[in-house]
Request: fold
Amino acid sequence: MKLLPTVLSYLSFIIIIAVPPVVLAYIGYGNLLTPKFWLLFFFLSGLTFLTVIAILMVAKINKEMYAQAFLAATTVKLLACMFFALIFLLKNKVNRYVFVADFFYIYFLNMGFEIYGLLRNLRNQKIR
Reply:
């Protein structure tokens, strides 16, 4: 997989998942967003972006290491997200239920893109 199409598809994906929070804030339901929502959004999105780029770079260097790189990068991303959530909750006074909903909205959608975008490389690329 080439790097540029992946980066462009990820940027368009980020714009798409950023629309619902912007709309919520605009129509007056800002209470459904954590007070520092955009910090959370950009941290998780940036971490996913770095994970995707790192895995694609490993795939270009050595295709046999693709699966190991995917698992290692996903593990590091999960641990970084857990530490970020812990520090975020200790430093900020937030409604925990709203935080959980916002965190999982961002995390699971980014994970879905990561899985879709990277695992499609494992399929057979030959056209029959």
